[in-house]
Amino acid sequence: MATVIKVPCSSANIGPGFDVIGLALDVFLEVEVTVTPQEKSEHALNCRITYEGVGAENVPLVAADNLITRTAVYVLRCHGIRAFPSETHVHIRNPIPLGRGLGSSGAAIVAGVNLANEVGDLKLSKARMLDYCLMEERHPDNVAAALYGGFVGTYLNELSPEDTERLEIPLSEVLPEPAGGVDTGLRPPEPPHNIGHFKKFKWAPEIKCICIIPDFEVSTAKAREVLPETYSRKDAVFNMQRLALLTSALGESPPDSDMIYTAMQDKIHQPYRRGLIPGLTEILQSVTPQSHPGLLGICLSGAGPTILALATDNFDSIASHLLNQFKKEGITCDWKLLQPAEEGTTVTRPTATATATATATTAPKGEAMTYASSGVSIDAGNELVKQIKASVATTKRPGADAEIGGFGGLLDLQAAGYAEPPILVGAIDGIGTKVKIAFEMGKHDTVGIDLVAMNVNDLVVQGAEPLMFLDYYACSKLNVPDAAAFVRGVADGCRQSGSALVGGETAEMPGLYKEGEYDAGGAAIGAISRGSPILPLKNEMEVGDVLLGLASNGAHSNGFSLIRKIIETKGLSFHDVAPWSEDETVGAALLAPTRIYVKPLLAVTRKHLVKGMAHITGGGLTENIPRMLPKTLAAELDAKTWPVPAVFKWLKAAGNLENSEFARTWNTGLGMVLVVDANHARQVTEILQEYGEKVYTVGALVKKAEEECVVRNMDVWG
Ligand SMILES: Nc1ncnc2c1ncn2[C@@H]1O[C@H](COP(=O)(O)OP(=O)(O)O)[C@@H](O)[C@H]1O
Ligand SMILES: N[C@@H](CCOP(=O)(O)O)C(=O)O
Questions:
Q1: Which residue in 251, 307, 429, 662 has a CA-CA distance of 20 to 30 Å to 361?
Q2: Alpha carbons 91 and 50: distance in angstroms, whole number
Q3: At residue 699, does pLDDT exceed 50?
Q4: Which domains does the chain have, with CATH numbers?
């Protein structure tokens, strides 16, 4: 079993806080260390290094050269230990882009100090570890954030002349000489005690970090060389005024975008670094909270070249604007939507029981255990309930007050308009693997709409009015902002369908799901008035009845396992510009929420104008349309009569899908298909159009021969 050291990346400065503030973000460097006692090792300093991830081609795998292990050697030598125990295997997993202003070197140094602490059993406190980190990194913003987590402010002590001298000793003299390993046998200079101090600030949970990462490196050392030695009083005051306000403004909910935008301006480092990053000034000035609602502020991340935009909404459109700005300079970028990593560096040690860990999840012998120590936080659950109360209340409807907190959710059918006992209809469904795209995009506020849609569209095709909804959200560790965003989506779907969100369940189950992931299900209950038709009216269907198709909003919530496979085989990331639409990313386009057809369809069913409806979900047209037909009739559709959205054309071509497979996998552009009497087709079309639906006459019912659903002219699909 290995010990695992996990260190977050960081964004330093946040505009005016040069060398002062840092924010740990949720991309983690992982160092897995195993010591297998053996007499002699063939590896220098007894350390074998393996590496995967970013920089695998260039990062040195020799212990005296690699930043992580040479930091560890320095710390070990300060404690009289000349090399790693024989034999140490260090496996590095690094997803942090190098030299981009996301604190890769800070994370490597923090990992190195922790590595020494583990293999040398040094029992260093975090404060002492910070001293060692500072001996190398020399500016405290990244390392304090990476070590302690969250949003931190830092300062360095004024040092005595001797300590200053010690701190100014070049690293080549601190580390094994010259980063190449001749062991001088000397004990390197130890860092002074308590050099660095930090304070954690609050960070408003709705603020997310859009990181635009250009495809070139700027070394922090070079980006510091371009800075002046002295500044005018005017510029120093400019930054101090902004920094003082910024640190508290970023903790306030809801965030004040005007204040944050202004408070993120800087005159100390960004103006001098613009020569290193083409178009920097123009790019920073190209967005404001007015031009891009949801944006709070923008700055260089660390020493650059990454741009950090803080926002509460519209992440994709802000990112795609910034990607385009860089594109004008001939620079391509990747982008990530990140969130603060509150925990900082964690170390998980193997224990006798192999599965137990030495992080907060194990209680030392004899110590009183709590439910929280097992990974379930009742407090987080309570906080979630507090945060979702308001959005849930917006789903209130006659008969249900949508107030959460009780043991069960109530609905008064009489108050809901059903004086006589109605026929109740229930449906239950999930979102499927579309949630994986939400994880990747860090966008959780629309998959709840999909969840509601999958259920209420199933109810309405039976002629039922959806009345109440309950959702189930299961995760490993409850992330309150993500879960709250998810419930906002559910509430949105409920409002669109007129159902009250009367309850739900949040299950925190450590170990069952992957960290950062969740699954969700939900159930809807609807009613049909006694005497009203329960659809489909199979007995009333006849040859010549018209099939009307309603436009879908993309793939809705079906066929995502294949979609993800196609995206993967094409080597695309969900953050890439969608090959079928230049204006959005792959992930944003695929997350388009499922269309909820309840209100328009109730308008036509209440007028008794519809004989049957099929909700086109998994199984596509060919499997779902027959579900509403009598055994004697078949549906004949003409593929020329409705447009296939660009996303489907691309998926079909990219996955090389046969026409028949295409028609039974996705909705091909039709989210609902209705059977109506030919005499009613026009009236139904007009009513649905009044509700904003796009309606196509896609075929008719015919006498059944072999197949229950025939699609003619499929060759138009290509
Ligand atoms: N995981 C790692 N393993 C080894 N070296 C690393 C690692 N991460 C960063 N480094 C070193 O740090 C350098 C980048 O440091 P720096 O210029 O400060 O940029 P950044 O803004 O990413 O911290 C890399 O080029 C590499 O030499
Ligand atoms: N305050 C430092 C921060 C450097 O951060 P990095 O992520 O680029 O290493 C500076 O601006 O130089």
A1: 251
A2: 5
A3: yes
A4: 3-338 (3.30.230.10), 376-534 (3.30.1330.10), 536-717 (3.90.650.10)
What are residue 449's phi and psi, to 5 degrees? Answer: -65, -40
**pLDDT tens-digit readout, 544-556:** 999 999 999 999 9
Ligand 1 pocket, mutate which of 67, 136, 137, 225 (most atoms under 8 A from CB)? 67
The sign of the torsion formed by the CA atoms of 67, 71, 77, 78 equals: positive
**Which DSSP category does 397 fall into?**
B
Cα–ligand 1 centroid distance for 198 (angstroms): 23
pLDDT-based confidence at residue 359 (cuts at 50, 70, 90):
very low
Q: What is the mean pLDDT of residues 634-658?
A: 97
For residue 385, what are the contacts with CB-CB under 8 A and spacing of at least 6? 404, 405
Q: For residue 227, give the ligand 2 atom closest to its CA.
A: 12
What's the ipTM? 0.92
pLDDT (tens digit, 9 = 90+) per residue, 264-294? 999 999 999 999 999 999 999 999 999 999 9
Ligand 1 centroid – CA 105 distance (Å): 4
Instruction: Spell out which residues line ligand 1, taking CB within 6 angstroms.
Output: 29, 59, 66-68, 92, 94, 98-106, 108, 219-220, 302-303
- Cα–Cα distances (Å) from 84 to 101, 134, 394, in that order, read 30, 22, 60
If one counts every other C-beta atom within 10 angstroms of the C-beta of residue 219, the result is: 13
pLDDT band with cut points at 50, 70 and 90 for residue 192: confident
